[in-house]
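Submission sheet (multi-component)
Chains listed below:
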Amino acid sequence: MTMLKEGRPTAPAPVEDAHMAPATATGNRALMLEEKLIFEIGSTETTGVDFAQAPLTGSRLGNLARTDVIGLPGLSEQETVRHYTRLSRQNYAIDLGLFPLGSCTMKHNPRLNEKVARMPGFADIHPLQPQSTVQGALGVINELAFWLIELTGMHGVAMTPKAGAHGELCGLLCIRAALEARGDARSVVLVPESAHGTNPATAAFCGYKVEDIPATPEGRVDLEALKARLGPDVAAVMITNPNTCGLFERDMKTISDAVHAAGAFVYCDGANFNAIVGRVRPGDLGVDAMHINLHKTFSTPHGGGGPGSGPVVLSEALAPFGPLPYTARMADGTIHLIEEENVGEEMPRSFGRMSAFHGQMGMFTRALAYILSHGADGLRQVAEDAVLNANYILRSLDDVLDAPFGQSGPCMHEALFSDKGLAEGFTTLDIAKGLIDEGFHPMTMYFPLVVHGAMLVEPTETESKAALDQFILALRSLAERAKAGDDALKGAPYHAPRRRLDETLAARKPVLTWTDPGMV
Amino acid sequence: MRYLPLTDTDRRDMLSFIGASSIDDLFVDVPAQARLPGTIPGLPDHASEMAVERHMARLAKRNLSAGEAPFFLGAGAYRHHIPASVDHLIQRGEFLTAYTPYQPEIAQGTLQVLFEFQTQVARLLGCDVANASMYDGSTACWEAIVMARRVTKRGKALLSSGLHPHYVSVAQTMAKFTGDALAYRAPTLDAATDIDALIGAIDKDTSCVVVQYPDILGRVADLTPLAEAAQAAGALLVAVVTEPVALGAIRAPGSMGADIVVGEGQSIGVGLQFGGPYLGLFACKQKYVRQMPGRLCGETVDASGKRGFVLTLSTREQHIRREKATSNICTNSGLCALAFSVHMTLLGEKGLRDLAGLNHALACQAADRLAQVPGVTLLNDSFFNEFTLILSKDARDVVRTLADKGVLAGVSLGRLFPAAPEIGNGLVVAVTETVTPEDIETLAKALEEELA
Amino acid sequence: MSRYFTDEHEWIDVEGEIATVGITDYAQEQLGDIVFVELPAEGASFEKGDDAAVVESVKAASDVYAPISGEVVESNSALEDEPALVNSDAEEDGWFFKLRIADASELEGLMNEAAYKKFVASL
Ligand SMILES: Cc1ncc(COP(=O)(O)O)c(C=O)c1O
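Outcome: structure written.
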């Protein structure tokens, strides 16, 4: 007989030395591949794109031809695909698992929406094409605008803002324009201490002085303190509802009435609209302006930091002051884009343009597909499931983690915990880094600022009960380890592509671009 | 509902675990009068994927897409060929469905891309540093004006007449509220730019001079004298680039002395998309880095000494500095930055130079051919891939008529500058590598007919 | 030379008409790793309580107030390259700026070392 022994044994001996995995020569660990920078692997002569030969013509570059070496490395297509595919594998993403980043609404991004956004009729049209050639695109903007107004019970909507913060800017500019139109110069915007940083930053960006309003011990706006501060110098109050502690501002209508009585406007940060979509209309609460992050509630992908889209719904008092351009449906069914040239008759009091073109069209198509997919019943279910999931997490963990407002009733779409009760020297950061090893993205940490060591958990409605249970198991185990003072936790993560990174070094000696070590 | 994984049994079990008798118990904090009794009126119930796709496709069909017609529009948004692998890579879920890289241990993919992007942008624009993106060119332009105010502690910006009028509008909108003074006048139909006039207008209150390169009429001019004049007066030069492909052919603004260079990066990797999302580029000299808006990614090491990347210098930003932040920007254009970076990596220096050369050569051919049409004069002495034609009649009408005939001829100055009818005969024509010789011929013939 | 402390955690050394100002060891400890210090320009004048400098850690930026009125005669340029000096030697080499004292009577309400220690212990 022939004794072929190649490739034996086929059943490995049981492993006892997993902790002693030897270092590899390349630094790679099987599927975990280290990837150098394009500047280290590419060359200025390599390219992954072929072009036709340029016809011979003279140069009319005004004697400004670029003769220096720019220093842009190229890669062939295969190398490019590999480079970015390898890098992608060093990222956590919703597609991989639960991403409970509070305030960020990391829900599933339906792929139909990606497909729709890429239809050439939407993706390959120029913003300055004659309007007769883009009626479908204007139709998308108009249809989405219609549903956003219906969903919020407001009077109008400004579609151009490019993200939540840009929407805040839009809302405050409307408010300022409205105040100026009645000859009322006011200088102060009131912002709760628990507000997102964009709120005070935006108010300052458009020239307002910012003052804090305190919170009550149960995590809501202090109505009495707010009323006491209102006066002829206050232009607006910015309120997040549901707020950043995950609670509904019960007194919202009373707040609005008081603000209006004082001649000011109510700006609502609508980043947390997901908790109430289809169940509560901000228009019924006296809100004058509210941005909607389409990249949160309406599921357009976050893309590693953007793009977003931040349409702003407006009350009757503010709608006339909204930005250009905007769409209007005419009696004959055509949709007009109202720009500087024809604004005279249509909206003489518009505060003007706030970005070059018509807003985030690529996000509008996705958001509209999302709204139509869910429909009236689905959207209501979205809010209900988002709130249910958050409460399930809150009640599953409030025995091991401090829930600062857990006593005062249910939460909305996010569950807030604090670091109170962890062993001496253990922090929210340790729990967060531990979650990484457990295969989850950490929750939002240290926000809102009003809660020490805040952990803000937002599961969203697109998680199954099984996924929630696994997350709860992981967080419970980490809470127990942090309470018991398990020092190993301080070293987490152990299993991620990188251990904890030195942010102090990065900030003290900033290296923001790559320099060829041979050149320094 | 296909996106919602909870079953009714799950919901019941979870409610009972929480101790709530119904979902309404969880909404107790919402005052009764604010609770919608039913669903949103008028909105149909949930729809199948097929039904929604059909609805959207019907809307998409009501647009004439650039690929269906001879296409010559530019003026701040350009149609270039995007290699297939760009879209494939940005659709990887690990990029597409990740958040801002606040947890660097599990976001090295995004962070390394941003570090590479910042380096590519800085080199392309000729600057020391670049940030991780802004919303678009127009908002980046305003941020540059604000930054110049911070740096110089002066409040008057001079805007070149060659600056994109929509960028001017954005700045004017903001300046109404911030009290910044802006000096601006619409362009005239002249082959020379207004650089000399700008130099003459700089004074001790000037925070910055903002100049577009190539400008809205396609003209290119050396920025060096302007940079010197601005800096001699203690002001900054802000250069605006709306067509970054040009920088594969013409000198970088940073190398001509610009202190801040901002731009619209859409042209590389992003696609037209009817105006958004686009990609704001923002770069400057090293000494101003702490005054920059937006996110910055920096190199560092991890606890085991391996190289890694983190977001850094965050004390400039809203989440830390709140009302004292350099900007209110939070969400930026991350995925568009990835698309830009992938496309730029595919091109490399060689590809970018080839691409720019091809654009310029085709534009030269088109300019010569179109200038032969009776009733058409070429304005520009110099240009990259975009130039201005002066027609014998209002260009706005011509553009509309040609669109009805299936030719997307360009952007009329009447559309861009409705308040300056004296330049209404101007037509801005962009010619990229996507334009064929037949397209040029079709446009020439159509203009001939229209202007006869 | 005498040293004073404020309840905003600044220390002031007075020598003749010049006051040297820094943040206390307690403050640097609370702030964590200092990554950047923004110092006032020479010649700047401050009223007592004005924002005079900014000290930054990775996750926070804190204003440093002028503890007394005066004109800046010198800033500690060593901090530009080595902000870590504030962590390693807050109360000596990590000083921030020197002021020409405008009104010596403003020193009267300030704490001495013992009082400051007691104040910190009470926090
Ligand atoms: C409560 C809140 N407000 C405002 C914003 C700002 O939105 P954007 O990032 O879209 O600018 C965010 C998101 O980060 C947020 O969570």
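Remark: The radius of gyration of chain B is 25 Å.
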